[in-house]
C-alpha cells in the first residue's frame, strides 16, 4: 500500500535513492524507481525534490554530510594527509555514489566544511590566502582524480584478475609502441592505495617547496 504523502520525508526519499544507487548504479536511478522503493506514487516525490537532478544533488549532499573530519594535530602535512585518507576511506564505502559526489558542483554545508578545514590548515601553515586557495584546489584535483580512477570512472589500463592481466600485457605489447611495451607488466596492475599515496605525496611536496 502506498504511503500517504504527509508521512513521506525528504530524508526517506534520499535514503531510498542511496540504497538503489549502491545496488543498481546511479545512472539507473529514476523518480519512478525511488517512489516504488518508498511505497508512493512518483508524483509524491515532487513535494521533496523538484526533479531527478535535484534528487541527485540532494543524494550527493546527504552522503557527503556523513563524512567525519579527523581531529587536527597542528602538523599541516599530517593534517592534510589525514583528511585525504579519511575521505578515501569514506568514499570507497559508496563505490556507486562516490563518483557523483566527486563530479557535482555543490555548496552544501558538508563540502564547505571540508574546504574550510583544508584552507585553515594551509593558512595556519603560512600560505597566503590566495596561495592556500590554489593549494586546496591542487589537492582536490589530485584526490578527486585518483579516486575516480579507483572507482572505475577513468582508465587505468590495469586490473586485479591475473588472466586478464596477461591479456592486457599482450595487447599493450602488440601495439608496438616502445615505451608502453617497456612498462607493460607494471602498467597491467594497480595498487590503488599506493597510487593514492604517490599522487598525494606529489601534491604535498610541491606545496612544501612553496613554503621553503
TrEMBL record:
**HTH tetR-type domain spans which residues?**
7-67
Query: Which Gene Ontology biological process is one annotated for this entry?
Result: negative regulation of DNA-templated transcription
| InterPro entries linked | Homeodomain-like_sf, HTH-type_TetR-like_transc_reg, HTH_TetR, Repressor_TetR_C, Tet_transcr_reg_TetR, Tet_transcr_reg_TetR-rel_C_sf
Domain of life of the organism encoding this protein: Bacteria
Q: Which Gene Ontology terms cover its molecular function?
A: DNA-binding transcription factor activity; transcription cis-regulatory region binding
What ranges are recorded for DNA binding? Answer: 30-49
Keywords of the record, alphabetical order, are: DNA-binding, Repressor, Transcription, Transcription regulation
Pfam families per UniProt: TetR_C_1, TetR_N
What is the name attached to this protein's record? TetR family transcriptional regulator
Q: Which organism is it from?
A: Antrihabitans stalactiti
Amino acid at each position: 500500500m502506498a504511503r500517504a504523502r504527509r508521512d513521506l520525508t525528504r530524508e526517506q526519499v534520499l535514503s531510498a535513492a542511496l540504497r538503489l544507487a549502491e545496488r543498481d548504479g546511479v545512472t539507473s536511478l529514476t523518480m519512478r524507481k525511488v517512489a516504488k522503493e518508498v511505497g508512493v506514487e512518483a508524483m509524491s516525490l515532487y513535494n521533496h525534490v523538484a526533479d531527478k537532478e535535484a534528487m541527485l544533488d540532494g543524494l550527493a549532499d546527504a552522503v557527503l554530510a556523513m563524512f567525519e573530519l579527523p581531529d587536527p594535530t597542528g602538523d599541516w602535512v599530517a593534517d592534510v594527509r589525514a583528511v585525504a585518507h579519511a575521505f578515501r576511506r569514506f568514499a570507497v564505502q559508496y563505490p556507486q555514489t562516490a563518483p557523483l559526489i566527486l563530479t557535482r558542483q555543490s555548496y552544501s554545508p558538508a563540502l564547505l566544511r571540508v574546504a574550510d578545514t583544508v584552507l585553515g590548515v594551509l593558512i595556519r601553515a603560512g600560505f597566503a590566502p590566495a596561495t592556500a586557495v590554489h593549494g586546496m584546489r591542487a589537492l582536490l584535483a589530485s584526490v578527486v582524480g585518483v579516486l575516480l580512477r579507483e572507482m572505475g570512472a577513468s582508465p587505468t589500463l590495469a586490473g586485479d584478475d591475473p588472466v586478464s592481466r596477461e591479456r592486457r600485457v599482450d595487447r599493450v605489447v602488440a601495439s608496438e609502441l616502445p615505451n608502453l611495451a617497456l612498462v607493460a607488466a607494471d602498467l597491467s596492475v594497480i595498487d590503488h592505495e599506493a597510487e593514492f599515496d604517490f599522487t598525494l605525496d606529489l601534491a604535498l611536496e610541491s606545496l612544501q617547496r612553496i613554503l621553503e
